[in-house]
């Protein structure tokens, strides 16, 4: 931010130090250093390091020389004490003989440096691997590196950051404290592991050590216990105490050990013990009392940073909670317990620090622990199961629908009186009122706080503690001037010497409008309307025709964290498929030349983002950089594996953007996913998340967004868990949701399509839609097939119910239901095996289908149907005279039902006409009475095969003009009429074409093979159609959609429900035909919304074809019952889904 | 059940264009039930008589024929004591293209041309065959006795 500008180029060398100090601040709080100068009390401490006489950079000027620090306790302070004497005393030979193997000299050097004469320590370090970390010790800590210093200070940023370790950027203040500092003492119980006389007596000092069971410790002269990995896991909290010679005397009681171990492992505390009481003669397992003096280590104050993914491989057992989070949790519990034990209370805290809060904290942490344990257990049992997908592994209880509803309802209480803001004049679109309101809100969010000088207040999560001045024996402790206080965050276990400032408000938020309300456009208007000062300056300069060279030539300035400010650039992260759309929308929404966009993807990634986006290049920097989640992830992985050095790269992470926008932000709902972690790390001043579903099904989904937005304090998972997850899981829903509500309210703006403005007008006026259910009557042949399958399915099902094997036979039962549903569409589907692939249970189904196909009875039924429908040649050889007579007759009244004109005029072999249904009903009536049907006019016997439907081509655009009598054709009934459903569809379409010869329709079916059966019928009726299903490649699909959109004539799109359910925009159609019902209406509704969505200008009519008295009709009932239930939202486990399905099936077959 | 369009249409037409010598009026509470009056055709033994019939349209009308019966006593070989009528179009020769109007015309015609070869009332048919004049006289007498409206 601005600080780097102030520092300016000349201060480069100085900045080396200033930067590293800011690093900590920045990473911990993302606080602008500008405001820092306001707090003297704290800043007093800052320069300490820089004035340290032994600093490796004597040449540099102190950042704030007005605060000379008298304390020579900087860097070198600890070093001489330890390193000095040690260097002389380290006996390499002895070390080698202890270790037994040959150790590389560089390793020895490291150990030597750190352990000095302490051989025990060196050996331990060598075996437990801590030396590896020591090796990475920041160079600043190393003894006199002075000669090299100037070089390194002027080195490239890359070099500099490389010198720092990924996670342990040293903070200046750390130099100012001793390696450890006493904070208190407490008594503990221990038990002995050896026996003997006078091993320990009152007042004896003991060492407190961590047992590293995995590594045998030859130095202790004890055979290394053989332990299994499981045992290692069990015992890894053991803390033992030894006498000064290093002999183990005993261990701390487990209760204490559990947290003491964590503090030791994480290098937070150092413990020194004194024996308070021990019996003279010790026996194994004797209780002894110790007093532990606890000192906080300097390392406790090191911050943790860019290491997010280091622990990803931690393994399955910890997947639910990352090992990083687990460490944090352990650390947090341990610290809280420690402070309780030593009776240290905050000198300043917030309301949140009340004791009850602390209890709650512990409670929360413990809950997580038991949960972990349960999970581990469960997983151990279920060990053979395939590794669970990350999806399943998400933790956190799923939200019930009504909770979700309640939550949304609250979040949706949109205030229609919100003021509006006008977009900048470079923005080419006009906004709707509600979009202007959003713009106003977003501008307010972005401009918040920064301008107001805010009162200095402590961060709500932190507590202030005073360093004790006297120890437990009331002896004064060494004083450390300027450092009377330290700070603890009991929610995260973080420690700090810096005053934790209350964060600024998050300068962004979540725009959670429902799909179709124009989130993209609103964001683009923001991009246009709120630009940084630098960007405006550049814009003005460009306007006044000044050339780039006239602008002050600023060098590229790296910020403390290695990023470069990009004051003009907004980064947009979107799913790959939307990149092009973002770019084109961005361009369409801007007057020419007012917005530079760039897609950062694939080969176009080959640019140097810091260079082109930096302030110096403001006049030419892209305003919008569009990239995909994949790119972010891959760059993140690259950096994380390359030890977290941001500065060394040229990609996204090397830039501090003016604004970052996550499109479809629910993509990061899983906070453990790498993508989410990558997004958290993106540096930007303003952070926005766009999503229609901020909560998909867990409260944790929201956490991830909040963390991305860096909303204090909720981006702290421990805090989140304490106040939201735990109450929620303990069924304290109202409290949890209330808290969520307070979190959401300032952050989220959400409007839904069905919202109404105060004057009752809908937010977005969509034309009306009507849904009509069309009852279909099966023909006799179809009904026979249907009944046969129905009885069979029913038998199977209830036999299984009786035998209690429903779950086992699930697939075969389900297959039969599937057959049943197919038989409603078209009997031929039943024997069509292709169709099988369309259901998940494909494998099992294939067998079931084979079973059905082999069935002779069914086969004959189907054949009968087939015979009735595809009878040979069309005997369309009639004299013109007969035809014209018939045509004229059509306008007459039906002799049977008196309809006028006849409905689907049909003629007998003796050329007498009536409605088709009348004739068929008459024939049925007569046949039922075992009488030969005779013509109602001439009493000739009617041959039911000799019935001809009169097809008029008056709806056909290719037909001759209306001046001539419409062409007619006789079509033998059965042929071309396909199944009842197809016939109904064709009739609907033809009626429609008669009314409106250019309208377009979409026909949905879940069975692609049914679509294939519809095709010939459309052909026969001369209806133009295109088709899109899941088997087609992306390109082919696009071509189909283009053709459909551009078509100017009557066109039908055949669409499989699965391929067409999501994403497509089919607003050029106005009719939707749903050929078969799906289990939940939500799926169908989504399909319908492809047509009835923003951009639709006409009324939409939807027809749902449902076979009367069939499973389809019952499916409608099931749909009604659970219109809003879980299945559609993917909120049930597979097992639950099955149970639910079985209930459904019972209902279907009853 | 709603009244089928066909019945509505037929009823309307019977009202609008009545057939000479025939009237059919539906009951108000049951539109499928008609009160029918047929005038005896001239130069037949039934001349001068007004015969009451009842007519009922079953649910499967017009697939099935209407049910119809004389209420007025009549001496006719094709009508039995209960008033049931023997007429092929009311039985096997029914066609859904036939209507109330055509059926009533057929009955009227039957009065003009009794058919003792296809009798329903065997005794009547027998007397008709044995002594046609006597039978006609009886028919005439019955008409006078039962079918001629009494002067008010």
UniProtKB/TrEMBL annotation, chain A:
Residue ranges constituting the RING-type domain according to the UniProt record: 894-939
Residue intervals of the Helicase ATP-binding domain: 500-712
Localization in the cell: Nucleus
Ranges annotated as spanning the membrane: none
Stretches assigned to the Helicase C-terminal domain: 984-1140
Residue ranges of coiled coil: none
Ranges of Basic and acidic residues composition bias in the record: 79-89
Disordered: region residues: 1-89, 135-171, 369-400
Biased composition (Low complexity): 148-160, 378-390
Keywords: ATP-binding, DNA damage, DNA repair, Helicase, Hydrolase, Metal-binding, Nucleotide-binding, Nucleus, Zinc, Zinc-finger
Entry-linked Pfam families: Helicase_C (PF00271), HIRAN (PF08797), SNF2-rel_dom (PF00176), UBA_Rad5 (PF24975), zf-C3HC4 (PF00097)
Superkingdom, taxonomy of origin: Eukaryota
Similarity remark: Belongs to the SNF2/RAD54 helicase family.
UniProt name for this protein: DNA repair protein RAD5
TrEMBL record, chain B:
Domain of life per record: Eukaryota
Keyword RNA-binding: no
Pfam families per record: UQ_con
Active-site residues, Swiss-Prot/TrEMBL: 86
Family: Belongs to the ubiquitin-conjugating enzyme family.
Stored PANTHER family: UBIQUITIN-CONJUGATING ENZYME E2 (PTHR24068)
Residue stretches making up the UBC core domain: 2-148
Keywords annotated in UniProt: ATP-binding, Nucleotide-binding, Transferase, Ubl conjugation pathway
Organism (species): Remersonia thermophila
Keyword ATP-binding recorded: yes
Listed name of the protein: UBC core domain-containing protein
